C-alpha cells in the first residue's frame, strides 16, 4: 500500500469512521452536528432585529469561524475519501465523495470561504441559494 493511501486510511478511521472503534470520530461527528444546530439557532436569532443589532459583530465572528471549521472538515473528508472502504482503491475517490448528496451542500460553504480567502466578496442568498461573487 502506498504511503498516501495509509495516511488517508488513518485519517478516515481516526476522524470519520463513526461505525468503527474511534472515539475521536464520534466526538468529531457530535461536534459538527452541534455546530450545525448552533448555526441554525444563530440564523433564527439573526432575524430578530433587537438581538442582531446589539450582537452583530459576534454573529459575524461566529459565522466566519463556523465556515472555516466546516471547510476544514470538508477538505479533510475529501482527502480521507481514499481511506473510506466505499471508495478505497477506486480512482478519483475525493471526487466520488464530493458528488454525493451528503457533500454537495458543503461545497457551497467551501466555495464561499475560498472566495473570501482569494479576496472576493460573496453573497449567498438564504445561505444555500444562489451565489454572486465580486472582486473587493
What does this structure look like?
- This protein has 6 helices and 2 strands; from the N terminus they run ααααααββ.
- The protein has helices at about 5-15, 25-45, 50-55, 55-80, 95-100, 105-115, and strands at about 120-125, 130-135.
- Strands 1-2 form a two-stranded antiparallel sheet.
- The longest helix is centred in the middle third of the chain and has 25 residues, at about 55-80.
Shape: elongated
Q: What is the element string, with H for helices and E for strands?
A: HHHHHHEE
The count of helical stretches stands at 6
How many strands? Answer: 2
As a percent range, the share of strand residues is: 5-15%
Proportion in helices: 55-70%
Spell out the blueprint of helices and strands:
Layout: H1 3-16, H2 23-45, H3 49-54, H4 56-80, H5 93-98, H6 104-117, E1 120-124, E2 131-135
Antiparallel strand pairs: 1-2
Helix pairs in contact: 1-2, 1-4, 2-4, 4-6
Keywords, please?
136 residues, mainly alpha, two-stranded antiparallel ribbon, disordered C terminus
Q: Can you give me a brief rundown of this structure?
A:
This protein is mainly alpha-helical and 136 residues long.
Amino acid at each position: 500500500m502506498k504511503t498516501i493511501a495509509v495516511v488517508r486510511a488513518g485519517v478516515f478511521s481516526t476522524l470519520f469512521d463513526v461505525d468503527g472503534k474511534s472515539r475521536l470520530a464520534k466526538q468529531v461527528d457530535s461536534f459538527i452536528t452541534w455546530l450545525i444546530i448552533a448555526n441554525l439557532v444563530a440564523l433564527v436569532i439573526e432575524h430578530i432585529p433587537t438581538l442582531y443589532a446589539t450582537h452583530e459583530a459576534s454573529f459575524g465572528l461566529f459565522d466566519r469561524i463556523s465556515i472555516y471549521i466546516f471547510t476544514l472538515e470538508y477538505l479533510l473528508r475529501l482527502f480521507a475519501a481514499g481511506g473510506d472502504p466505499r471508495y478505497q482503491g477506486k480512482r478519483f475517490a475525493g471526487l466520488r465523495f464530493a458528488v454525493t448528496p451528503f457533500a454537495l451542500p458543503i461545497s457551497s460553504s467551501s466555495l464561499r470561504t475560498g472566495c473570501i480567502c482569494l479576496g472576493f466578496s460573496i453573497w449567498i442568498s438564504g445561505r444555500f441559494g444562489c451565489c454572486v461573487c465580486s472582486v473587493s
